[in-house]
Amino acid sequence: MSPAAGGVAWGLPAGIVASDIEFISLWTLVAALVISAAGIVALRLLARRSIQVMVAGVVLVCLFTSMAGVAIIAVRMLSGINKDVVLDLMAIAGLSGVIVALIVGRQLIRASRSISAAVQSVGDSGIYVAPAQILPAELAELSGALTVAYDRLAQARSRERALEASRRELVAWVSHDLRTPLAGLRAMSEALEDQVVTDPREISQYHTQIRREVERLTLMIDDLFELSRIHAGALRLSRRMVGLEDVVAEVVASAEPVARAKGVRLTGAAIRGIPVFVDPAEMGRALRNLVTNAIRHTPSDGIVDVLAEVQRGVACVSVSDACGGIPRADLPRVFDVAFRGESARTPGPAEGAGLGLSIARGIVEAHSGQIAVRNAGPGCQFLVRLPLSRPGAAVLTPSVPWPEASRAAGPGHHRAVSAN
Q: Is CATH 3.30.565.10 correct for 238-419?
């Protein structure tokens, strides 16, 4: 009889027929499906249990499926002692697999518990110390991510504490600074209301003083509003391409009357062709705060110099005064809220709430720039650095001063202003 007629597949070993293959395949498939279904149900029931139990469950499913297939083969193809030997070997292999699964699961549990202990030990310090033991790749990656996350959280907490301290200081300073003009306004208004002052000249003086105090309060409130927008990240910039020399010229021209009234000589110079992408109004306010602060702290007959140039591919504006310098210990605090560099909290009649430099820093940083201060010459120098829109567009050459603030220089590379 031909192999085809006898129902035997081609290429089968001697003694094995197609019916054996069909029997083994069918029952192995049935056993695999049953064991897999039972394993899936068991793993879902054990979803909240330890990793060790779940790993052991996965291993048992694989072992039982393999053992079932081998058992079916043994029952179908073997007999006598051979069958017993195969079953004994299957039992030994299954026991070994379970032991290995339990060991692996225990190692995973130990690693996860070490990470959990490290997280719980963070406490108020906010410092996460990674476990010293060797971790599996995934858990090591998780530990590294926790380290980065806690570092960022610590930085955020530090910034929040600094901001909260700054807010408390601001409230303390501003509440004091607001009380002083308000007390004066109340006293003068009561004097006018009760007709304590009847002389027309005195009444006119009271009205003038009331107007000045109101203007001062308005400026302080404007500064508070600007600073609150900066701290809240709500500062909206209307950026456009401008020449930095134009911004500097406008600032110096607007500050000229203040300098002349105090007897301070205000000079300024700027290289032509320094393109920057900024909000002209906000950047002008920042530079104006720096110039006004320099004039306020410079004695009569002193000089305040404003220079705009390009240094190492960056647009730079420096404001130098003759204030006599800032104590080294106070330099890091110059841009802090309400810092005036003096122990007395009561500002002078022309001073604000000490927010000008803080506002300048916020505006400069909002433009992706940097602001710094250092002692130089007879006073100190504030330096603002801004990115150029086209690096290398300007070329540094010696400054040429202008005689007048409102007049543009003739041909050349510079515009400058001078106020006596």
A: yes
